[in-house]
Amino acid sequence: MMERAPQPVERQLPTDEARDLISLVRDIAQREIAPKAAEEEDAGRFPREVFTLLSESGLLGLPYDSEYGGGEQPYEVYLQVLEELSAARLTVGLGVSVHTLASYAVAAYGTKQQQVEHLPAMLGGGLLGAYCLSEPSSGSDAASLRTRAVRDGGEWVINGTKAWITHGGIADFYTVMARTGADGPRGITAFLVPADAEGLGAAAPEKKMGMKGSPTAQVNFDGVRVSDARRIGEEGQGFAIALSALDSGRLGIAACAIGVAQAALDAAVAYATGRQQFGRPIADFQGLRFMLADMATQIEAGRALYLSAARLRDAGRPFAKQAAMAKLHCTDTAMKVTVDAVQVLGGYGYTADFPAERYLREAKVLQIVEGTNQIQRMVIARHLAGPETR
Questions:
Q1: Number of helices and strands (H, E) in the chain?
Q2: pLDDT value at position 372?
Q3: Residue 289 pLDDT > 70, yes or no?
Q4: 370 is a catalytic site residue
Q5: DSSP codes joined into one string, 30-48
Q6: What beta strand segments (E) does the chain contain?
Q7: How confident is the model at residue 140 (pLDDT cuts 50, 70, 90)?
Q8: Which pLDDT value is given to residue 388?
Q9: Which of 134, 169, 243, 245 is buried deepest, with most CB atoms within 10 A?
Q10: pLDDT, tens digit, for every residue of 142-168?
């Protein structure tokens, strides 16, 4: 038996335009992203030129209105693009997801003037965004954030520190949730802050076990002034905006997770069909065949789950519960599949000469970002049984 080359995922796409889009993404992934992924991740290098290419190709604003330079694609299609990019390199797929998340507040809650002024550059002008909600003392309990914005005439003055910010220090704009009122979720307001604002700075990137090419850093706001024209939505509406953005963002993380899992499965199948032991390929042994079958089944189930949630969103129906389910299931699947992929490769799977160990290290963060999987279980349970009694 010869080593089997990975087969492209068979996708059910709604239009010829969507099929052409996936073909474009696969071409970019194969030519520009995958060949450099291992080397650049090991070096901790962020591929800004790839994001410039994605912007020029119309891939940084896919779910947003074409009026402002977006692709006006349904989430069903956008998420499959994320999956393809993440299979090539998670730093890229997750980076696109975060940029989409950072653009959401203006796209969904901004005034017409804000959308005309800011969205074209965000969606197709080469800019890169970051989303600032978490803080050193407020992660899962995001409503307890302490970064504060105080009105001073026609401006707001922002002071505080945000933590675990993807693209911290390299982004061109930051969507920032800051406290403008009393404690609790109703005292939070959203702002669009340019990266070159005086008083804005980033700490050194965190040293992480995976995704080393994607900078994650604290972002400090020391008397940062922004005009009231950069306030997004009404005062006190920021937390509602943040939660709405995260419902969609969780679907992005689910798609990224399935991309990593698919890459791990492809690597495992290629190795198992090419590796000879006892005079035959190890893929001939039933125990290993069953592992591969289970991995593939879990991936297909995860893909179906995130696409089902995306179709609810595209239809304008509630999807928060399904988004939490998709984020939970798909990221748990990525963790299990990447662990199994390392096992299939045996000793080689534990070395950096093969990509399986990188997929395993990358998969772990997906169970944590944009709401830990424990938080997802809480969200799902609230939809089933109502809020917790106190």
A1: 11, 10
A2: 95
A3: yes
A4: yes
A5: IIIIHHHHHHHHHHT---H
A6: 129-132, 148-152, 155-166, 173-179, 188-194, 200-202, 216-227, 231-232, 276-277, 280-281
A7: confident
A8: 87
A9: 245
A10: 899 999 999 999 999 999 999 999 999
Q: For 177-229, how does the pLDDT look when each residue is reduced to its tens digit (9 = 90+)?
A: 999 999 999 999 999 999 999 999 999 999 999 999 999 999 999 999 999 99
Q: Which residues contact 312 (CB under 8 A, 6 or more apart)?
A: 318, 319, 322
Residue found by looking up tokens 């990224």 in the block: 256
Distance separating alpha carbons of residues 262 and 325, to the nearest angstrom: 19
- Distance between CA atoms of 384 and 206, rounded to whole angstroms? 37
pLDDT of residue 7: 83
From 373, 167, 361, 329, select the one nearest 263 (Cα to Cα).
361
Q: What is the pTM of this model?
A: 0.96
Pairing mode of beta strands 129-132, 173-179: parallel
Q: For residues 100 and 71, is the Cβ–Cβ distance under 8 A? A: no
Catalytic residue among 76, 84, 135, 370: 370
pLDDT recorded at residue 390: 74
The closest of 171, 250, 178, 177 to 214, measured between CA atoms, is 171
Mean pLDDT of the chain: 96
C-alpha span between 352 and 361 (Å, rounded)? 11
Angstrom distance (rounded) from CA 353 to CA 233: 49
Interatomic CA distance for residues 256 and 336, integer angstroms: 15
Count of all residues that appear for the chain in the document: 390
Q: What whole-number distance in Å separates Cα of residue 65 and Cα of residue 75?
A: 12
The first and second tokens of residue 305, run together, are 């789950």
Let me know: does 85 contact 25? Beta carbons within 8 Å. Answer: yes
The helix or strand, by DSSP H or E, that contains position 78, with its residue range, turns out to be helix 75-88
Tokens of 255: 């798609």
Look up tokens 């779910």; give the residue: 63
Q: Which of 116, 113, 127, 124 is nearest to 175 (CA)?
A: 127
